[in-house]
């Protein structure tokens, strides 16, 4: 609706002002002009939005672990699809993604964590995504150990696992 003017009117001896209103539809503007304006606006939004950076697939995931009984905090590197034991936990990252340094940090890893029970059975206690920027979101909280993702890296001081040789 569009305001077109201001008028005055008598009502039981009182004067009051009112707005005259007119309704209009897309046909009065022209559907073609409206659709062209929408296409132009959408193109401007796409052109002005920043390009998304490709995520980096890293071969090493860096984790931090806490032993709640001893108070020991340790940082350890794990190669993708390899398993490292931290206390009674076995940590296996499946992928580890990060973004370039020029972008907002976003580091995530798909991780499987198994617990070795007292009767030597392996029990899966966590399968899912961990986010380095939100360590409390999907960290593994065990009765004795906590583990969370710290970073994804291209290389590690830990030697890479050797490729399996066939004889």
UniProtKB/TrEMBL annotation:
InterPro entries: DUF2155 (IPR019225)
Classification lineage: Bacteria, Pseudomonadati, Pseudomonadota, Alphaproteobacteria, Hyphomicrobiales
Name of the featured protein: Cellulase-like protein
Stored Pfam families: DUF2155
Domain of life assignment: Bacteria
Naturally occurring in which organism (per UniProt): Mesorhizobium alhagi CCNWXJ12-2
């Amino acid at each position: 609706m569009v305001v077109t003017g201001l008028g005055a009117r008598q009502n039981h001896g009182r004067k009051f002002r009112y707005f005259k209103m007119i309704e209009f539809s897309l046909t009065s503007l022209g559907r073609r002009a409206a659709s062209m304006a929408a296409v132009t606006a959408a193109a401007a939004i796409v052109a002005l939005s920043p390009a998304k950076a490709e995520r980096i697939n890293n071969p090493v995931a860096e984790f931090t672990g806490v032993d709640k009984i001893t108070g020991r905090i340790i940082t350890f590197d794990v190669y993708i699809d390899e398993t490292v034991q931290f206390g009674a936990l076995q940590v296996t990252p499946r992928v580890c993604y990060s973004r370039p340094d020029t972008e907002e940090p976003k580091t995530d890893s798909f991780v499987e964590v198994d617990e070795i029970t007292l009767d030597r059975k392996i029990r899966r206690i966590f399968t899912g995504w961990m986010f380095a920027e939100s360590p409390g979101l999907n960290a593994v909280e065990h009765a004795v150990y906590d583990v969370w993702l710290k970073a994804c890296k291209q290389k590690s001081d830990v030697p890479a696992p050797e490729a399996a040789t066939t004889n």
